[in-house]
Specification:
Structural class: alpha+beta
Oligomer: single chain
Helix content: 55-70%
Number of domains: 2
Number of helices: 13
Distance between the termini: 27 Å
Largest sheet: 6 strands, mixed, barrel
Strand order of the largest sheet: 2-3-8-5-7-6
């Protein structure tokens, strides 16, 4: 029997029970659609994570207070800080392959200007901060080393703070009050967006770290130290040199700091994203499996219903392989049609997620092709047994079947 005739007969058989055929393909449609949507959402999340990690700057090494690896009474990141200004200055002087160092203080405070107020993050930084974070100053200029030494009351503000406190005017040269202390705005940071934790990076006021320590927080220890290595090839050496230097400065005491580089942070974020993608993909594959079982079930029913038809075909000269090919073709057509509709469903679902939930999505053409091929393989795998069973029918018994 020619392939074209087999396909034509298969379509005719599927059209006889349109609703049943559609419901049978529904499992494949949902499975393929789920694969496309999950992969698209996962790829979008991965790209967003990569972009946000890149927004931290290039070749960045971060020194945190606290340590995970030593014994005794110890804390993790964010423990009571023992990082000092002298530690940061020692890194600047003694560690090679370093292009920038920023001593960092972090706090939150209510900021007032022109009768308006806004609660925001107050960062104390060194002049190298925009360079390390690859964060340009859109207007004005960054404060200088002289401002740091003189505890100057100057500030750089993010776009969110500008929009909230100066909605209809230029903030450059104006003053904001941080805990009743006036700071003159000398620069405005370019818009940066949200970070890995979903926090608005533009909701920030940056002042000299010395002013933060003496005037705002009244603390003597740093929150962290940002260091930029000269290249990606030297980042591991810089990390190790910083660890050795700070350990040496502790003079035998257990390390009370943690040094991480941007690559490690990016890898941790990527691993978390990968785990979620694998989980979602596994759920989608289960849907495909259920769809395949549905096809097998309906094809078995179809074989039972068409027993007399099969008997007549065998009686007039058809071979068992012709019957097997007939039912196998029907299963493949059913699953492939479900694959096409599933791809359409998945792309539509991804678009809706992007439009209404504002999640980033990236449609993968490769995964769309793979999903279609897999849907065809599902038809072959789950349609083979019913087709084989039909091919094994005895013509005389089939003709007697009521």
């Amino acid at each position: 029997m020619r392939i074209s005739s087999t396909v034509k007969v298969s379509f005719r058989a599927l059209r006889r029970n349109k609703l049943r055929s559609l419901l049978t393909a529904l499992g494949i449609i949902i499975g393929v659609g789920a694969v496309i949507a999950m992969v698209s959402i996962g790829n979008g999340a991965k790209s967003q994570v990569e972009a946000q990690v890149a927004s931290l700057g290039q070749n960045v090494v971060i020194v945190f207070p606290g340590n995970f690896t030593t014994g005794g009474m110890r804390g993790g990141w964010g423990s009571a800080s023992t990082l000092t200004v002298e530690d940061g200055e020692a890194i600047t002087r003694e560690v090679s392959n370093v292009e920038g160092v920023s001593l960092e203080m972090r706090d939150r405070a209510q900021v007032l200007a022109g009768g308006l107020n806004w609660n925001t993050q107050i960062l104390g930084e060194s002049p190298d901060f925009p360079f390390i974070r690859s964060w340009s100053v859109a207007a004005g200029a960054m404060f200088t080393d002289q401002d740091v030494r003189s505890l100057a009351k100057v500030a750089i503000v993010g776009k969110t703070v500008t929009d909230q406190l100066f909605p209809s005017e230029d903030p450059l040269g104006k003053s904001i009050q941080i805990r009743n202390i006036p700071f003159k705005i000398v620069g405005i940071l370019a818009a940066k967006g949200f970070n890995l934790m979903g926090q608005d990076q533009d909701d920030v006021v940056v002042i000299p770290y010395s002013s933060h320590m003496r005037r705002i927080s009244r603390r003597i220890n740093l929150s962290s130290i940002l260091v930029q290595a000269s290249s990606v090839e030297t980042i591991d050496k810089v990390q190790q040199d910083i660890t050795d230097l700070l350990t040496q400065r502790r003079k035998g005491r257990e390390p009370d700091f943690t040094v991480r580089n941007q690559v490690e942070i990016a890898q941790a974020a990527a691993d978390a994203s990968k785990t979620m993608r694998v989980l979602l993909l596994a759920i989608a594959c289960v849907s495909l499996l259920v769809g395949g079982i549905g096809i097998m079930n309906i094809m078995l029913v179809s074989v039972t219903e068409r027993t007399r038809e099969i008997g007549i075909r065998l009686a007039v000269g058809a071979h068992g392989r012709d019957v097997l090919l007939q039912f196998l073709t029907e299963a493949v057509i059913l699953s492939s049609l479900g694959g096409v509709l599933g791809i359409t469903f998945g792309v539509t679902l991804s678009w809706l997620v992007n439009q209404y939930l504002k999640w980033p999505v990236e449609i993968s053409v490769a995964w769309s092709i793979v999903s279609f091929l897999v849907s065809g393989l599902v038809g072959v795998a789950f349609g083979f047994f019913p087709a084989w069973k039909a091919a094994q029918l005895d013509p005389i018994d089939a003709l007697r079947y009521e």
